[in-house]
Hints:
This protein is of the alpha/beta class. Helix content is 22%, strand content 25%. Strands 5-4-3-6 form a 4-stranded parallel β-sheet, covered by helices on one side. The longest helix is centred in the C-terminal third of the chain and has 13 residues, at 92-104.
Amino acid sequence: MSEHYYSRTQKVKSDPLFWDYQLRNFQIRFKTDNGVFSKKEVDFGSRLLIESFQMPEINGDILDVGCGYGPIGLTIAKTWPNRTVHMIDVNLRALQLTIDNSELNGIKNVNVYESDRLDAVNEHKFAAILTNPPYSSR
């Protein structure tokens, strides 16, 4: 399999980029890099999911599957600081960017960890699961 943003490790040279984006009435600063999806802006699908999401009226944590550099999960965590958002991805560079972005924005109600599919969270129950998964036309 060729290297892609849903590969565990990235061989493409790191070239971090910082930019600000408004999501759910918050100005959020992002650090992105080569080897992650949508490096220069929050993609349309993620923006639509973020802006249209409504928190369910049940208690429980939220899961962001394939979190990338963190736009979905971090915005949801910032919007609902009384909920914990678990953020998983297989891409190690993306996971580090998510950690960096949570610190950059002072978002503390997140747990970020590596997971291939749902392996790391199969013991958890969630109030909602959010994802904007990569797809291939192959």
